[in-house]
Amino acid sequence: MYHRSKKYVYILLHPTAGTSKWDKIVNSFIITLILLNVVAVIVETEPSIYSRHEVFFKYFDTISVIIFSIEYILRLWSSTYDTKYKHWFWGRLKYMFSWEAIVDLVAILPFYLHGLFIFDLRVLRILRLLRLLRIFRLTSYMTSAKMIGNVFRSRSQELLLSLILASGLIVISSCVMYFAEHQVQPEKFPSILSTLWWSIVTITTIGYGDIVPVTVIGRILTAVIAVAGVALLALPAGIITAGFLDEMKKIKRPKIHTCPHCGQPLDQLEEKNHDH
Question: For 137-144, what is the mean pLDDT?
């Protein structure tokens, strides 16, 4: 009974693990509650609305935290059903330090911290804004969000390489622009470290226009750096697109059922039996 209850709770809180009607109901309810919490955090920053409905916002936040706290406890309790967290103590401790569990905890922690301690108004506002982290909990309930995570995990090496290349281009462009413009505009390009700001906004094609080159060599270098930045920023986009295509192929790939005894596909065995 104990293990059956744990399995049932685990499947309810992990929509991808089950396909029953109750899984979908719980899934839809939690997603709706998370979205409503995000909307509430945004709307209550409007003083005219918050002053009229302050009691409602407080009750809504309290009820939401109670639900999320119960869910967190149930997730922690049922986590040992997963083979990754099999041990009754170390498995749960490992789960508590997983990304999913940390987001769950941080999303509800400000409520309890506010109740236990008296904070400065600025600190209290920061703690309230931490409730926006609840939106990241959608990753636990949406299959598409898990697919995004799989894409970044599978393409982590390529994305890391593109990040290194972009960082290298930023540093190199800062150095060359400093030596090209420092003598003419010492107030705009006072050091290589300060020129990093110009490099970032130029390579990302934002170009605020607050710092612009005036020398001929500086303008030529800016044109080359801007074009190189566009080409380099297109690299991670292509990597992520290729990753999404691979994940879509995995999802659409038909599942092959094999015989538990001989390991051969069942459809081939049926064809053989039919021939005989």
Answer: 61
- C-alpha 227/C-alpha 238 separation (Å) is 17
Residue 187 is part of a domain; what is its CATH number? 1.10.287.70
Quick one: which of 229, 227, 248, 220 has its CA closest to 162? 229
Q: What is the pLDDT of residues 210-236, one digit of tens each?
A: 888 999 999 999 999 999 888 888 888
Q: Find the helix or strand (DSSP H, E) in which 164 lies.
A: helix 156-181
Specify the CATH number for the domain of residue 8: 1.20.120.350
The model's pLDDT over 80-105, given as tens digits with 9 standing for 90+, comes to 988 888 888 999 999 999 888 888 88
In angstroms, the CA 27 to CA 17 distance is 12
pTM for this predicted structure = 0.59
Q: Residue 129: which domain range?
A: 2-141
Let me know: does 67 contact 34? Beta carbons within 8 Å. Answer: no
Contacting residues for 233 by C-beta, under 8 A, at least 6 apart = 166, 203, 204, 205
Residues in the chain, overall count: 276
